[in-house]
Design goal:
This protein is mostly helical. The chain has five helices and three strands.
């Protein structure tokens, strides 16, 4: 190491130590209020994963896709005449977000199939 570089590093190090002496460390406040403690505990409980359940419609959609391999949303809509296409899309979106089904394509060429573990 060049002695000139070492001198520069030493100078910068000493300046850094001086700056650190000026820094105040603030300790986090302790929660003293019981109501605040309860709220914190409630927030932690809300973060727990919820039980994994499927709606009846989602179960039927899964069976349809398993039986047909891949399906377009319009084809799935035909099996649920009492439901709006938007409701079916919501159910499919939830299944996709859970990783149960995957969507391929876009627009009218979108189709859904079961998510494989490959």
């Amino acid at each position: 190491i060049n002695p000139k570089n070492f001198k520069i590093l030493k100078t910068q190090y000493l300046e850094l130590i001086k700056d650190l002496d000026k820094v105040k460390v603030i300790e986090p406040k302790q929660v003293e209020n019981k109501k605040q403690e309860k709220k914190i505990e409630d927030d932690v409980e809300e973060e727990k994963p919820k039980k994994f359940t499927l709606t009846e419609i989602q179960e039927r959609v899964i069976k349809l896709i398993q039986g047909n391999g891949r399906m377009k949303p319009s084809d799935i809509n035909g099996f649920f005449p009492d439901m709006t296409p938007r409701s079916i899309r919501r159910e499919l979106k939830d299944l996709r977000l859970r990783g149960i089904v995957v969507s391929n394509g876009s627009g009218k060429s979108t189709f859904y199939e079961m998510n494989s573990l490959d």
